[in-house]
Amino acid sequence: MVDSTNRQTLRLLDKSQNVSERSLSGADTKEFEDELDTANGINIWQTAISLSGVCAGLGFLAVDVLVVSTGWIGFFLFILLYAALLYTSIILGRCWNMVRDKWGHERHPYGAIGYEAFGGLARSLINILVAAVCFSNAIVVLMGFSEMTLTIGGAALEGTLCYWPLAYGLVICPFFWLATPKSFWWIMASSFFTVVMSVILVITSVFVAGSPTSSGINATEEVPRESAFFHLTEIAGTVFWLMAQHGCIPTLQQDMQQPQGFSKAIILADLMTLFLTLPVMLALVITYGNTLTNVSGSAIVYSLLPEDALKKVSASLIMVHLTGAVLLVNNPLFQYLEEVLHIPIEFSWKRVVLRSSVLLMQIFVQETVPHFTLLSSISGGFLTPLISFLVPCLFYLRLRKTYQPEPTKWSMLETIACVVIIAATPCIIVAILFGTGTAIASGRTAFTVPCYVNATLAGL
Question: For the whole model, what pTM was predicted?
Fold first, then answer.
């Protein structure tokens, strides 16, 4: 792999020598710049690890509990959404491959796809939508730092949830100043491997707990049961928040050595993520069984585990994972804002000020709604289904007519799948928002007041 990259770089250096020896046309110069940029990109495995490093982690430790608590219907919903999101990721990657020769150096490629599909208005709308989704999703990731701190500290840190966001913001802010995914893929790799180790520790801790009562769950205690519909909407919202990283996909694909191989990368990423979450679900079923029907919607796996070293080390590893996740999720937002504000690609004080300001705004929202599962459900319930379900299907059907006019044996099946997903999107949005809104109105969530109203009460 390294030899292949070196050979490609040497070939491009030879070509650059030829550039100095003769005058190239504008097209030749652009071709050379594109090839040089591609040679410095990330490969398929690096792309897969980066994507899995975002998707696997804290969110799945929440959705695992929700899926097990709803039984087979929850598992079926999880797998159905998972497969549909994988498919829309693949067709979004195909869309970028159709238009990338024309838009190779575009700073927000999802918007370029929209332009080629439906024109300038679509480009503007999708850029705004991607920015909004990245902003909201990153807030939930940032919330994870505080949640893991309380998991590690236990009772000693009770009531301090609101004090941690700004502290962690100061720590991770310098990482925000890095350019694009190929500049920090090593952080993404660390994020993935820390999740792997954390999952191993979680599974071990689940079996060490041995019984529901030893981990704080009383199987005979009468606990007010939450609506199964509420749990199902939470599953849908959390899965969308986790797996629907479609705003990042074209940006990450643009940084690849072989963008045409993105389908392989996303399939590898989703398989790796699935192989991390299914064992946790199985361990929960074996150990806790039907007792999880009484857990609250705010529960994650850590809330079921005993206060031991396995739990605390696992939570510490998840904090490393969150660093890589928040970088990748925020990057399309940064690229969009920097182009709108005419901030150069090269590192400058303007980049530092802009990205630091965005982080401060995200921390403010986090302090307003300081609860992880509620934020993830809301974030995944409205804007994310649009950008991950509806838009990729619409763009793909439109671009396919232009770039692939000859139908294939799969064309009809793909059309049916896209139409079904398009029709299902508004139903999913309404269900998630209704379930979450009803839970908030009836007081069945952990939300109380913003941190700046009452820091102690908000953290309870």
Answer: 0.80
**Lowest-confidence range among 6-10, 81-85, 203-207, 420-424?**
6-10
CA–CA distance, 190 with 53 (Å, rounded to integer): 8
CA separation for the pair 256, 166 (Å, rounded): 34
Q: pLDDT at position 416, please? A: 94
CA distances from 12 to 32, 38, 104, 264, 424 (A): 8, 11, 17, 26, 47
Give the separation between CA 352 and CA 359, rounded to whole angstroms. Answer: 11
Name, in order, each residue with C-beta under 8 angstroms of 133's C-beta and a sequence gap of 6 or more. Answer: 247, 383, 384, 387
Q: Which two tokens stand for residue 11?
A: 């070939």
Say how far apart CA 426 and CA 161 lie, in whole Å: 35
Please give the residue that has the higher pLDDT: either 436 or 396. 396
The conformation of residue 256, written as its DSSP 8-state character, comes to: B
Question: How many angstroms separate the Cα of 244 from the Cα of each of 130, 180, 191?
Answer: 11, 19, 18
Q: Which residues pair with 42 in a beta bridge?
A: 256
Q: What is the pLDDT of residue 375?
A: 62
Token pair listed for 182: 């190929």
436-447 confidence digits (pLDDT tens): 777 666 655 555
Q: Average pLDDT, stretch 358-382?
A: 74
Which H/E stretch holds residue 252? helix 249-254
The span from the CA of 383 to the CA of 405, in Å, is: 31
Cα(131)–Cα(128) distance, integer angstroms: 5
